[in-house]
Amino acid sequence: MSRIEEALKKVASQRKRPIEKSLELNKNKKVAAPVRPKSVTERVGALLDVVPLKIDNLMLATAREEKTIVVEEFNKLRSTVIALTKGEAFLNTLMVTSTASEEGKSMTALNLAISLAKEQDHTVLLVDTDLRRPSVHKYLDIKPEVGLVHCLRDNLPIEKALIKTGVGKLVVLPAGEAVKDPLDMLSSIRMKEIVQELKERYPERYVIFDTPPAQPFADAGVLAAFLDATLFVVREGKANKEDVVKTIEEFKHHNLLGVVYNDARVFLKSSNYYYYD
């Protein structure tokens, strides 16, 4: 054998040893199994496996077990929302707003969210995007340390701010803190990304956004451009009629599902009392 052949043979032998050694190491190395996505059943089970919040606020009728007239009205609203949002595309991101403050939009958003969360087929995430005067946490009597503001401003992962309520399959993303002028936050690319992530993360989930009133602030109009549909709340005797008509006309361009007429006095022929819806 020539010297050249011997040299080539030696080089080939040296190359072979690291490969054999690598194969031996890989053979003994433990490979982690791929993470299996959680099924709907597992996700629902995780939501239910928490101590339910004790909700004492009388305005949150759907959180209680009594079958009152108000609860039935919100269940009807739930059925209407489901009918209007189910189709070829699931319109699962829904904004609840009003013309002026104190029309009951947050109360409506919460009662609708709880009613939907108690329904069999859906999980629900309620997002408090009224960063000027957040109130969802007050209705639920919780004191969150972080929330949407921190996800927007500090890039906090969304899952770090979510709160499981144990009330049906309801999860809440609180505001976290009040912001004097949140318009830049709410109109940011980051907000749009958060909306998209919440929309697509769980295909069976409704995501309901409680927003500031539309008349004094631009926040609701900005958010409406990111969301699938709008539900409008009008309280009897509260907002100016011309303002209501003007605002509703503006939101017709944002897939307005309908109007919830709140605090309407209705006389029941079979009874001798009035009730408020």
Q: What report would you give on this structure?
A:
This protein has 277 residues and is α/β, with parallel strands linked by helices. It has one domain: 3-Layer(aba) Sandwich (Rossmann fold), CATH 3.40.50.300. Helices cover 40% and strands 16% of the residues. The chain has 10 helices and 9 strands. It has helices at residues 3-28, 40-48, 69-85, 105-118, 136-140, 148-153, 183-186, 189-201, 219-224, 241-251, and strands at 93-98, 123-128, 163-164, 170-173, 205-210, 229-235, 256-262, 265-267, 274-276. It has a 7-stranded mixed sheet, with helices on both faces. Strands 8-9 form a two-stranded antiparallel sheet. Helix 3 (69-85) crosses helix 4. The radius of gyration is 27 Å and the shape is globular. The termini are far apart.
Please indicate the percent range of residues in DSSP E strands (runs of 2 or more). 15-25%
**Quick one: how many beta strands?**
9
| Parts with pLDDT < 50 across at least 5 consecutive residues | 267-277
- Largest sheet geometry: 7 strands, mixed
Mind telling me which CATH architecture this is? Answer: 3-Layer(aba) Sandwich
Q: Outline of this structure?
A:
The chain is an alpha/beta fold and 277 residues long. The chain has helices at residues 3-28, 40-48, 69-85, 105-118, 136-140, 148-153, 183-186, 189-201, 219-224, 241-251; strands at 93-98, 123-128, 163-164, 170-173, 205-210, 229-235, 256-262, 265-267, 274-276. 40% of the residues lie in helices and 16% in strands.
